[in-house]
């Protein structure tokens, strides 16, 4: 029963997050009729350097690509009528296009992933230790291994000349512990098998 309830909770969390993401996308994305470029997605940017006694300036205006020139973007014109052509030749105009809808979708996906990772981290830190219980079969093996380590450290010779022997003894001790663990695992598996059959 606890596993079934955990699986149900995980399923509802995943389904809830996907429904929330779809709802947010539907709210932000414009309908197909409005999907044509909005005024904030296109602009013409003209960079005009200093000219005579006029300081340099950057002009932005939402115009179509064919109207992206100094005459349509630079308003008000800072020079008198006879200097307009010379001033406009110095200005560099660029047509810029972007998709705010795509930017919004990418930001929503990024925030959703970060939020899901934060929720998962909170679950691992807070809930998982409460749910997970120590295994009754592996706990005695860990205790026995710790006791063996303490005994081998206490019985190990301390002279510096016997360093090679202590390394060999440690390897042999680890091998013996591993063999005992395998035997204990076999016993528990066979005991379980007998109890089940």
SSE blueprint and pairings:
Elements: H1 2-28, E1 42-48, E2 57-61, H2 70-73, H3 84-90, E3 92-97, H4 100-131, H5 138-155, H6 163-196
Antiparallel strand pairs: 1-2, 1-3
Helix pairs in contact: 1-4, 5-6
Protein name: TMEM9 protein
Keywords: Membrane, Signal, Transmembrane, Transmembrane helix
InterPro entries: TMEM9/TMEM9B
Q: Outline the biggest β-sheet.
A: 3 strands, antiparallel
Elements, N to C (H/E) = HEEHHEHHH
Q: Strand sequence of the main sheet, in spatial order?
A: 2-1-3
The count of helical stretches stands at 6
Which outline best applies?
rod-shaped
Low-pLDDT segments, ≥5 res = 1-5, 31-36
Oligomer state of the chains in this structure: single chain
Structure class = mainly alpha
Mean pLDDT: 74
C-alpha termini separation: 23 Å
Rg from Cα: 37 Å
Residue share in β-strands: 5-15%
**What's the β-strand tally?**
3
Helix percent band? 55-70%
Pfam family, one: Tmemb_9
InterPro entries: TMEM9/TMEM9B
GO cellular component, one term: lysosomal membrane
Subcellular location: Membrane
